[in-house]
Amino acid sequence: MLEHIDETPVAGNGLLDRRMFLRGAGAIGLVSAAGSAAAETLMVPAWTKTPGAWLQGYGQPSRFEGNVARGPFPADLYGGIGPGSTRAPLQNLEGMITPNGLHFERSHNGIPDINPDQHRLLIHGLVKRPLTFTVEALSRYPMTSRIAFIECAGNSGALYGPKAAEGTAQSLHGLVSCAEWTGVPLAMLLEEAGVDPAAKWFIAEGADAASMDRSVPLAKGLDDAMIALYQNGERIRPSNGYPMRLLLPGYQGNMNVKWLRRIKLVREPAMTRDETSKYSLLLKQGHVAQFNFPMDAKSVITKPSPGLTMTGPGIYEISGIAWSGNGKVAKVEVSADGGKSWALAALSDPVLSKALTRFRIPWRWDGGPAILQSRATDDSGYVQPTREQQIGVRGSLAQYHCNLITSWGVSAAGEVKHVYA
Amino acid sequence: MLEHIDETPVAGNGLLDRRMFLRGAGAIGLVSAAGSAAAETLMVPAWTKTPGAWLQGYGQPSRFEGNVARGPFPADLYGGIGPGSTRAPLQNLEGMITPNGLHFERSHNGIPDINPDQHRLLIHGLVKRPLTFTVEALSRYPMTSRIAFIECAGNSGALYGPKAAEGTAQSLHGLVSCAEWTGVPLAMLLEEAGVDPAAKWFIAEGADAASMDRSVPLAKGLDDAMIALYQNGERIRPSNGYPMRLLLPGYQGNMNVKWLRRIKLVREPAMTRDETSKYSLLLKQGHVAQFNFPMDAKSVITKPSPGLTMTGPGIYEISGIAWSGNGKVAKVEVSADGGKSWALAALSDPVLSKALTRFRIPWRWDGGPAILQSRATDDSGYVQPTREQQIGVRGSLAQYHCNLITSWGVSAAGEVKHVYA
Hints:
The structure is a homodimer.
Chain A: E1 9-11, E2 15-16, H1 30-34, H2 46-49, E3 84-86, E4 105-107, E5 120-125, E6 131-134, H3 135-139, E7 144-151, H4 169-173, E8 176-185, H5 186-193, E9 201-206, E10 213-217, H6 218-221, E11 226-231, E12 234-235, E13 245-247, E14 260-266, H7 273-276, E15 281-282, E16 288-289, E17 298-303, E18 314-323, E19 329-335, E20 343-344, E21 346-347, E22 357-365, E23 370-378, H8 387-394, E24 407-410, E25 416-419
Parallel strand pairs in A: 5-14
Antiparallel strand pairs in A: 1-2, 3-4, 5-6, 7-8, 8-11, 9-10, 9-14, 11-12, 11-13, 15-16, 17-18, 18-22, 19-20, 19-23, 21-22, 23-24, 24-25
């Protein structure tokens, strides 16, 4: 019923047609490639012989998945308080959705324990009538849902460094996650408050102990901004802004202010601490790129990636995530020879604007050294740059918005390492 | 910048145009409708004055959301073991994704604690070469991702009863959930094993203490069936089949065999316990509808719904979920007058085949009694039936596949109750 097919490479070093698996893998001996043995006599396992555990009000992962966690943890300089971040374990994740327990977290002075009954959102400044909202009042408003990624502006910053940093997909790139967010369109609340035509920006402020605040163009507030109350169906987690956060699809993570308590409409950006001393991109010759908000198109291979060892020559799937803060991912290309040749990866549906997109391509590893790369192009035509291109433009002081092409080196022993190529 | 609009009802008893909110709500006084006060002086809350909590490897919901849990729990007849189910708290959820901790659970003899290193999947019977797969071997296979609902065949069965059962969206309809599933297409493994042309069905068996097994048409196995390893990005939760389950998009939940250990290709259905004594639909005059697998188009309003009290006349959003085991939701209509008149609801993107779809429509409640209903139509043209229609066809013995239109009665006091209308 499924046709047999050629296994003609579509790019150097063993990359195969992305549609190969759709047409059936019978011809290529995938089972032996994957090391499956012929049928064993199935023994009845212990857990089939005894009734299992009872039901749970709120479920948890298997105890055998305890190593799948956010991390690495920063130095705890102040005894369990202060700023920090942990990263999503990208090498252990699949698909486009990040489960809420593993969504990356970043806080500037810890994660507040907010009582939603006492929380208020104030909209004021250059408006006709200032408004205060309780969580309950907001919950009565019409809502909207969208699947969107959030990426910290500092994600992947280590790749600006002069030497290829040791690390995993998680430790190098794990400050990105994706969820279905539901909440009230900010445009609706601004309309209700009545925008003064003099207003061009707004300041969003959190109720955390850092009073984290950022300036946002009013145009974004009237476009696709959302006061998000739900994350993957349930109320937002504390580390992601409970009881509400600002969602600015595609914009740098830090602007998606968590624990949101205040939106003040103003004429000009406020030059807050977190848009001056931080989250501005140092360029060459003393220049700074400030207020560069959207996260440009990017991709990273998560399978294989450092920490996941290859178990001998044969067929593997190369899989990863791609995204763009400016729209949809139009295509992802993969190279197995360090960028000399490229092949088109398959994209998993649905491909959504400003959301993670899963890509996949089959690869026959011949057991020799290989350098794996992925390159995303978004629907604006923007192409993810090489390291040379990005550093050529930005210089060596850049810290933020790093979206250059990552290289994973595969050794003959099957070990995968971050390399520059 | 947003135009003011008429608030002309589009159906009886206050239903408003679904696009109203898209065009701006400034004209209709939504804030006062929602009871928001004019701006208070924002006090600095306690949690802004003290550093917050430290980072967590695996995040949990806010302690203030402790009441959002699966339930109700069945009688624990055997001291924490045995069969049972809990339901997703639909009235507390938003969007289309069910978070993993709240995905409904159903087990026939408890939830096994499976060590993935010892688990095996056997494919045998009418195949050219029987195959055994470890989790690790399967993990090397090319994967596919899709967002799909799973609904227990017994969901909403109480609505066949002669009197309107007291209950909530959760207790009446909570045996449905939706997640992004990732795994290996079953067709690929069957191709590898080599299907004997005599095979027309397969038996899927779980490794739980009930050895839950069901017969599935081979055609479904070669179509969109998946050996799912991931649920919303992370490994499947124990209550949903860790380390692997069968996913049969759109088919009754029980067939999506959890803790999957065996797929045996056969000529005819095996008439297992769970497709004969249960999960067959009793009809009139001694007839039984067996092997009716897809869950037909259905919808339920989750907001407002029993337990969520209305707080006075004014504008509300009516929101809910719709789905079809046969394809995409084409439209959802809502009635506020017990089915006399209907208005089209807005559907949240993305609208995906065999996935939950969120619908929304604004409603001006005048403070009088109202009966809210929703009616889904899928892209095959199938229309969700009324209670009279469904019981007229099936008779009074039916237990499964109940997808009739639910009615929520709203009293002048704002209380919402399940009613027959």
